[in-house]
Amino acid sequence: MIHALQYPDRVTLEKAMSPGGFCLEPRRVAGLYELVYVCPCGCGVIGRLLVGDGHKPGGDRPSWNWNGSREEPTLQPSVNHVDHWHGYLRSGYWVLA
Predict the structure, then answer these.
(1) Which domain holds residue 42?
(2) pTM for the full model?
(3) For the residues 35-48, what does the mean pLDDT come to?
(4) Of 36, 38, 51, 69, which one is least surrounded by beta carbons within 10 A?
């Protein structure tokens, strides 16, 4: 398990490059965010997920339902960072599938 530490913005996240670290960037539509994260495997690759606060956004790109917690985030469904890591973000921890 890797702890998902929240950073206040992308610049701070990219300076720290802590595996599993993340920040939330609000989208123009209320309740939608880009969850920007450092791959939990430790490779240093940055990923982006479209998340909805309490709902799974629709549309033509993959999206995740976020529980709205910044301290103990949970996403549904699993996160597949292709060729790097596949698992879940549950109660503030990245857990391998």
Answers:
(1) 2-96
(2) 0.94
(3) 96
(4) 69
